[in-house]
Amino acid sequence: MSDWLIYRGAGEPHDGIDQLPTPPPWRGFDGGPVLPPPMDLDTASVRRLGQGRSAASYEPLGEDLELINAALYLRRPLLVTGAPGTGKSTIPHSVAHELRLGHVLTWPVVSRSTLGEGLYSYDAIGRLQDAQLGHSTDDIGRYIRLGPLGTALLPWSRPRVLLIDEIDKSDIDLPNDLLNVLEEGEFTIPELERVADRSPEAFVFTHEGERVPVTRGRVRCRAFPFVVLTSNGERDFPAPLLRRCLHLFLPQPDHERLAAVVRAHLGEEAAAGGEELIQRFLMRSLQGPLAVDQLLNALYLSVYSGDAETRGRLAELLMRPLDQRG
Amino acid sequence: MTEPSLAELIALLRQGGLRTDDAQSLADAVWLARQMGPSTRTASPEGRPAGDTGLRPAAPAGRRSAEPADPEGLPPGLRLPLPAVDPPRHVPPTAVPAPSSLPGLLTLQRALRQLQRHRGGAPSRFVLDERATAERSARTGLTVPVLTPVTRRTMSLHLLVDSSSSMVVWEQVAEQMLQVLGRIGVFRDVRLHRLHESPDGRPVLASGRSGDRPRPAEDIVDPTGRQFTLVITDGAGPLWRSGAAQRLLHRLAAQSAPVAVLQPLPQRLWPRTALAPRPGELRRLGPEGGRCDFVPEGSSGAAREDGLPVPVLPLSPQALERWARWVSGAGPREVRGAAALVLPDHQAAEHGPERFPTAQDRVTRFRSDASPTAQRLAAYLAAAPLALPVMLGVQHMMFRSATGPSPLAEVLLGGLLSHANPAGTEGETWYDFAPGVRELLLERLAKDEAVLVLKFCSAYVERHFEGDPPNFTAMAAAQLSGTDAPPLADFRPSAPGPTAGVPAPFAAVAAEVVRRFTTDRRRAVPVPDEQLAAARELLARYAREQDGRALWTAIQKLRVIVTGPPGPLVSEANLELAEALLALHRWNPDPALLDEADEAVDRTLGPPAPAGSTVGRARLVRGRLRMTQARDRREAGDLRRAEDLLDSASVELDGATRLADEDTLLGAVLERARALEQLAEIRDSALLLREAAGSLRTLARVQPLWARRSADVPLQLGRVLLTIARTTTDGKEAREFAVEAVEELAAARELLGAEPDGPSRTAGLLLDLAEAQERAGEDEEAVLLTLGEAEHALEFAAGPRACLALRIARMYRALSARRPAAYSFACDVLARAASHAPAEDPALAPLLAERGEMLLDSADTEEHVTAAVDVLRGAVRATPEDRPEWAPRLILLGRALHARFRRARDRTDLLEADRHLSRAVSAAYDRGVAARGWYERGRVQIELGRLGEYTGRRADHLHQAAGHLRRAAREAREAGDELFAAEARHAYDELSRRLRS
């Protein structure tokens, strides 16, 4: 049964994305003109995945792997829930790295985030200033910059990877607004629609700084992006959103997972020498929630800390449960 | 063709417990399953463009059948989301008390709309106002942007719902508040958290009712002051008693944002909770709510009390409106209300000195405080098992007008109940009354009300427990209501075997209710003599009329009597009890009854050794007991244990015969003979049978000296002799035994006519008589006559008739060789029996098979053959596949279809026949059966060959046929059936000759 998996979680980049079958008829979109995909990852992914990227720090297991692949096949967003530090935000980076889907578009959500901000922003003041200064302002596309969500919904030939981080921190309205856009796979830019009869095609900036054409103010995707929504589980989402997403729940990492993470980020010797710290981390995590970052911090510092006593003290300081105060 | 399979898929998914109400999710899952299908992915050929992989050209119909049917194999897409807010675990949606008693959503909304006036501090952001800018620049000619402050909602609200067990009844309140607060449009964000207690006593938050993924409760404290917190609790949970929740409240109140507690209990119960709010005056310390001051009523204004005040609101729209107005700064600064003072180090509530109140104390206290509705509810609940759904249901049913959750909350908190954990109820919420409380409450319950409650509980049992468990609650209800108690047969579980796991309290509570209403003289000193006589009379009534109620009442009485001091009366009572329990066991095969009977017999034989005759009776009862246990073990397949039990039964019964008086001697000897018969069957020993026959003969000789002659003796003797005649190998001896059997059975027949239950047993007797006559070599007329009488007697026979009818038919058929008329008799009997037999009758399948075979053999028109086909189909369907008879019946069906083909020339019949026959040969246990199967297959293939359109196909079939026939010959030879082997060989030779030519 495993030959339907496209993303295998092995860490080695490959071209499996070409074998993704055409989407089910109700999830097919026909935006155009088709844009070639960007191919490069950047340091953001390196920070997440670790140096020797072949031993990627995130190795999903059985059911998780199936869910991620199901999300790829069905063109549906993936809602990842888990405690802080369990590797939720690493999933899109891992997928982008392995399937060569390019730079991961990240949208960190805060309580003030609105859908509009994620789609695009229009620099009205800048345009006004240019008009006052006498520069030409015919090219309205210069003042429009697509946000991460907007960029993901451009008609790329390969699906982009979009990470909507910490969506449970958002306003009460954002999940509902998001729902509609993710269903339809398209959105409009009113500022361009207004002038559509005069200039039907405009070149707007993507989130990464490239200029792409937008016809008649309407952006529609071609390959639905691989959207990952992460949540800390602090709040319940409205049922319509939940119905549209696939759910993945990440438990706290166990010993092998932690060792793999350490190995990926800090190398083999750190993993070997850090056994004791890993054990202590696991025991501490029984008392309260701990993040994997804290372990990595402690291990990193232990290289520089000299004697065992200092190491022990540092470990105490750094590996406190997250819910303790003071 | 796709429609039915899609419907089947949905049904399968539903069975697996997956939600399928979202068509799109289902479509996703089916599509994904196709992609994941078993065929491997072929390497993409060169020349394909990157994005187009092309779907594998799978035939949709065929692929559907490849879908895995078990839930584990389903694609991950089907593990699609569960509802966002998981429903409360134990509250069945239909049983929640009518919500019209709680303030409606609209009223709440109107009340809380006052909160809209709340301005949450200065605006922090400004945004470009395009219209104003455009206007101004058009008017002034200068383009200067106009910025307006963002008047977004800035406040968020966190709803903390206490999830202790008593809060289950207020689930609706939490839902309503969540909806209303979301709708009034005041808050940017409304979140619901559930407050649980962690194992070490700290408050934790979780999102669902089940408390998974807990977070520490301190997470909710928001120092920015932009958060309202509303706590919904009844103040009675463990977190309040230990003070942990009050400490949490203190931290929340120390921020500058408003905090309040919503207390759904009626106000007069507030002082009883651990969160004891006091009435007084609340004064705002700012333009809007948040920090406030509290002056309790009755205290002098000077002395400040320690602790921060937290307003406590009742569930009334007026109070909520006043609070909303006060907190949003719209009304006056002071408002009259209730508040609780919480300290940063709030201690656990003090207990009074450790008192163990008696049941009377508890009930008195409850009755003095509780509302009349709660008191009535408590009385009703005394008649029901205290599982939460049952309690809610009883409340809903007994109170016609909506009463809301408060009466139940009062009962839960009234000091009468505590948590309980009866066996088999893990994961459910059960309570129990404190000892003695139930009886006191039952005193105030009227009989007809008790009957209603019991009826509800019995309906609950039927709805929620599968199979057909013994429903004592129904029995109790019937008994109390004095309706013509249906005979015990109605309470009999329809299928033997382990009863469904109905938790014990259902039956125990029903028993207690019955006890309260039937043993009125409970308090009087029991006089065993009268009681025993009364019990005996009831038992006699049961024996006469099969009145189940009498039996049960008798058992109750006897149970009470045997708890008395040991004595001759008590010994007798124990004995009667054991016998009654044995009788009850026939209807309700609960092994606990047998154990109780065993103990009762022990007590009879125990320390004060009773009179000899009593010992005899006791041993007889024990012998019967062992036989019943042996039967249980045999049905369970444990033959060794059954054998041991039968041995021990035989020993006991032997002892009984030596010590018994006249009445019991008969019973003992008969039982012993039965035990020996069964042992003989298990051990396959003829010796035991002769021993049984011997003892019965002795009894028969002795019997005429007594007053009463019972038919049982000659009947059983005759049967034993017949069994010997059947099993013995010596022909002459068999005939002798059969002759003797005929005599005895004829005698038994005369006697049976005079007995009350004679007619129901006559059919079986006559059948045996007919068989004995045949084995004795009497002429066919006599046998036919007896069989005819047996047929008539079949009308009156008790128990499953199909078996008897089948035997009759078989005997007729055996005789039909010499008397052709018997054949049609056999057909008639079978036809009648087949139409009357119920579907669960295990003898139905052989009956149908026999009938089908007879129809087939005698069929001369197409209708007859079709009838045969239908009957045989029924027979196959009724036979489980793992029985050895399944294969021969399939072969019969194949033959019947073949026969129909010969008349009707419908090719599908042949194809179907081939299918059945191939299944039959692969399933056949017996070589001989397999041989016939192969033979029939060969013949069918020959027919197919004749039908074949092209020569190639024709030859195919004929070659196959040849193979089958050869196989048939081989199997027959190995089975030792030379005759049939020769026939098959002959057919094969003919065929191969034809093929070669």
UniProtKB/TrEMBL annotation, chain A:
Q: Name one GO molecular function term.
A: ATP hydrolysis activity
Q: State the InterPro entries in the record.
A: AAA+_ATPase (IPR003593), ATPase_dyneun-rel_AAA (IPR011704), P-loop_NTPase (IPR027417)
**Quick one: signal sequence residues?**
none
Domain AAA+ ATPase positions = 74-254
UniProt protein name: ATPase central domain-containing protein
